Hints:
Blueprint: E1 4-8, H1 13-24, E2 28-35, H2 42-53, E3 58-63, H3 82-91, H4 116-128
Parallel strand pairs: 1-2, 2-3
Helix pairs in contact: 1-3, 3-4
Amino acid sequence: MKKKAIVLLSGGLDSITVLALAKKQGYACYALSFDYGQRHNAELIAAAQIAADYQVEDHKIIKLGVEGEHFTIHTPLIALSKAEIIKQGVALGVDYQRTVSCYSADEQGRACRVCDACRLRETGFIEAGIKDPTRYQKS
């Protein structure tokens, strides 16, 4: 029987990398996304598409407030820089074009290039020496 992992899947760069890592490590993955009243649903749409692409066992989108039995939260990326996360994801075959990190993405999921998340993401790709596949809004 495979070990099970619940992956918090936001639809962004970090969470898709964690999902790819867990799959590579042989886990049966269950994706959990939160609808916390985002200004738009681009993140949740991206999360659903990623969950389907990675063939997770199940994907739940819930409002805040999770109750359940004892569990352990693993944070395999917490000590890594964005560049290190991106490099690891690329090595795992992650398609970062499918992710949304922007706090102000438009309805098509295109990033603003101005918010903190966009700037961190763009810097991460530059520092990793990898072409940024992010779809940005036209200026």
